[in-house]
Amino acid sequence: MGVRFGFKTNRFYSSSGSSGSPGSGKPNHFRILLVLGTLAIGTTIYNTVSSPSTSKMPTAFVEPDLQAKKPAFSSDQVSVIFVLGGPGSGKGTQCANLVKDYGFVHLSAGDLLRAEQNNPNSKYGELIKTCIKEGTIVPQEITINLLQQAMEKEVTKGNLRFLIDGFPRKMDQALTFENQIVKSSLVLFFQCPESVMLTRLLKRGETSGRSDDNVESIKKRFKTFVETSMPVVEYYGKQNKVIQVNCEDAVDKVYANVKFALKDKLNIDTNK
């Protein structure tokens, strides 16, 4: 049975001690010993309290300030639409149409990772290759860094509207991206039955040359999408930022629905 893609202080402690005075009527030599003992204890307490090693807060217990660093871009300047959907749902095809007609910049997280994997000078190449083969998620630091670099290049050219395809695939990716790069404007979610996507991917695999277009990898990717990406869709759905499009229909009909939804949500002129 196929998988269905549906919604659903640090505390620091201190201690102190106390000392009493010796009783009266004791022999003099005993009093001397008590005085010397008291002086030794007092010195120890003083050194303990005033020692720099104990007066400083252990750095391991200091929580990082997540708001200290501002996002790389302002959402007033740069617009980002996340494009999500299961493997083979048609994200790339629809993004290509939007780029052609409305001037969006299309950034595919998968394409960026594959390019990095094939870069002989990349220290992440083998790790990315393993993740793609196994259908698992590449560490977010790598993906977000690649996306930021690509966005910076486009912004210097005056391109400010982005479709980010296949990202974020997990909640931590979504939150980190919005904290470090820019807040998203919208999420385009392409919904499609697993059986249809499997057929599309196997057909594509005949000519694509992609190592992950085989039945074993595809099923792992389906499973990963449901377990990690659907919570992202649900998260943005609660913020009324999701456009859900049925991708079972013909490409032209799907695209017509996408244009209508964008006009409704973002007031983009889609009379083309």
Provide a quick synopsis of the model:
This protein has helices spanning about 30-50, 50-55, 90-100, 110-115, 125-135, 140-155, 170-180, 195-210, 215-235, 250-265; strands spanning about 80-85, 105-110, 160-165, 185-190, 240-245.
Describe this structure in words.
- ATP binds at residues 88-93, 204, 249.
- It catalyses: UMP + ATP = UDP + ADP.
- The chain has 2 domains: 28-61; 79-266, Rossmann fold (3-Layer(aba) Sandwich).
- Residues 1-5, 8-27 and 43-67 have low confidence and may be disordered.
- The longest helix is centred in the N-terminal third of the chain and has 23 residues, at 28-50.
- Helix 4 (109-117) crosses helix 5.
- The chain has a 5-stranded parallel sheet, sandwiched between helices.
- The chain is built from 10 helices and 5 strands, in the order H-H-E-H-E-H-H-H-E-H-E-H-H-E-H.
- Helices cover 51% and strands 10% of the residues.
- The chain is an alpha/beta fold and 272 residues long.
CATH superfamily of the largest domain: P-loop containing nucleotide triphosphate hydrolases
Radius of gyration: 30 Å
Broad CATH class of the largest domain: Alpha Beta
CATH topology name of the largest domain, in short, is Rossmann fold
| Element-by-element helix/strand order | HHEHEHHHEHEHHEH
Strand order of the largest sheet: 2-3-1-4-5
Mean of all residue-level pLDDT scores: 79
| Total DSSP helices | 10
Number of strands: 5
As a percent range, the share of helical residues equals 40-55%
Query: Biggest sheet: strands, sense, closure?
Result: 5 strands, parallel
- CATH-derived architecture of the largest domain: 3-Layer(aba) Sandwich
- How much strand? 5-15%
Number of domains: 2
Give the helix/strand class.
Answer: alpha/beta
Distance between the termini: 40 Å
Shape, principal axes of CA atoms: globular
Task: List unreliable stretches of 5+ residues.
Answer: 1-5, 8-27, 43-67
Which oligomeric state applies? single chain
